[in-house]
Amino acid sequence: MSLLLKRASAVSVAATFLMMVFSVAGSGAAAQEKILTQAKSAPTDLLPQPSAPAAVDADNGVVPPVDSATANPASLAELVASQPQVEEVSDELNCLAGAIYFEARNESLAGQLAVGRVIIARTRSGRFPTSYCGVVYQPSQFSFVHSHSMPAVNTASRTWRNAVAIATIAHKGAWNSPAEGALFFHAARVSPHWGNRVRVAQIENHIFYR
After folding, report:
1. What span, in angstroms and rounded, lies between the C-alpha atoms of 12 and 21?
2. Is residue 166 within 8 Å of 83, Cβ to Cβ?
3. DSSP characters for the chain?
4. Cα–Cα distance between 153 and 76 in angstroms, integer?
5. How far apart, in Å, are the Cα atoms of 170 and each of 16, 74, 116, 210?
6. How far apart are CA 171 and CA 165, in angstroms?
7. Which of 68, 156, 157, 209 is an S-S bond match for 184, by CB 3.0 to 4.6 Å?
8. Are 181 and 120 within 8 A, CB to CB?
9. pLDDT per position in the chain (210 positions), as tens?
10. For residue 125, what are the contacts with CB-CB under 8 A and spacing of at least 6?
11. Cα angle at 181 between 198 and 171, to 5 degrees?
12. How confident is the model at residue 31, as a pLDDT?
């Protein structure tokens, strides 16, 4: 009898042990599945995000953000305002700025740029001198030129500084002119007979042709 009780007790212990093992294994699988399900359903904005690498500069350790308005000016006026003031202007740039100043200083910046681009287009056309000064001082081309010279300019004036800035922009091709490709222009108040020249644009008081 005692032998039967011992065997029954052993079987009971073994059965209890097996139930514990399967119970633990089942709980672990369920917990893992639950964790994976929660991770998949968690909002992404609550999860830790990788931080962007910091830009480094040799001077102060951090590169300042680029000012998009300066890098990509929204207007010609903004581009003109961003040009550095030049204390000494080269002879060629002085000739280009002089033509802009005397021909279009009372026009809009677009009108001034168009005049500057005409001078530049002439130097590349093969039909005119190849330098800005050569184009400006070519006989019978610009009424402000007298005896191979132009009148004195107040170089401290804002009007002249704008002319230099426009000349620089025109020289670099930094802004498109609505009269691009024109080689000639005249005041709208006159009607010269220019044969078969093609009209390119009118900007305020000037009409441009190629």
Report:
1. 14
2. no
3. -HHHHHHHHHHHHHHHHHHHHHHHHHHHHHHHHHHHHHHHHS-GGGS--PPPPPP--TTTSSPPPP-HHHHS-SSHHHHHHTSPP-SS--HHHHHHHHHHHHHHTTS-HHHHHHHHHHHHHHHHHSSS-SSHHHHHTSTTS-TT-BTTB-----TTSHHHHHHHHHHHHHHHT-S--TTTT--EEEETT-----TTPPEEEEETTEEEE-
4. 24
5. 94, 17, 6, 18
6. 10
7. 209
8. no
9. 444 434 444 444 444 443 443 343 333 333 333 333 343 343 333 333 333 333 333 233 333 333 333 447 789 999 999 999 877 889 999 999 999 999 999 999 999 999 999 999 999 999 999 999 999 999 999 999 998 899 999 999 999 999 999 999 999 999 999 999 999 999 999 988 877 899 999 999 999 999
10. 183
11. 155
12. 32
Alpha-carbon distance values, 60 to 24, 56, 64, 165 (Å) = 59, 8, 10, 32
The whole model's pTM is what?
0.65
> Per residue in 65-86, is it b (16+ CB within 10 Å) or e — as a string?
eeeeeeeebeebeebbeebeee
Do residues 158 and 122 make contact, with C-beta atoms less than 8 angstroms apart?
no
What is the CB neighbour count within 10 angstroms for residue 135?
22
